[in-house]
Amino acid sequence: MKKVYFAGSIRGGRQDETLYREAIEYIKMTDIVLTEHVGDLSLNALETTEDRDTRIYLQDTGWLKECDLVIAECTHPSLGVGYELAYAEKLGKPCHVLYRPKESQLSAMIKGNAYFHVYDYDSLKDLAGILDDILK
Length: 136
Known about the structure:
By secondary structure, the chain is α/β, with parallel strands linked by helices. It has helices spanning 17-28, 50-66, 79-91, 108-111, 124-135; strands spanning 3-7, 32-33, 69-73, 95-99, 117-120. It has one domain (3-135): Rossmann fold (3-Layer(aba) Sandwich), CATH 3.40.50.450. Strands 2-1-3-4-5 form a five-stranded parallel β-sheet, sandwiched between helices. The longest helix has 17 residues, at 50-66. The chain starts with a strand and ends with a helix.
């Protein structure tokens, strides 16, 4: 079983929280997701304190060090997800970036970086096939 760091927008917007939850549940059928909270529909993205932010940073960077690979859904831009991808790249972790091109453009800093495996998709059905390919 692989340890997967699933990244998705939290403070950048929760438009895809249901999709995150479904993708995480799909991944959990075969592997471990360290960041299940990304798909939590009750997650309060606005709740923040300096102490909480430090704990989140330490927890997330710890999970990035522990994981076997990163899967990031990047349809909705997020500074945090961009940072997580750069951090994972620095650690040499395989990084898989998913996005829906009909809804947004992916940052050139991500799409133009040959290190990242970028996948575009249209539907949850497409996403399941991509996840199968990543996790095999």
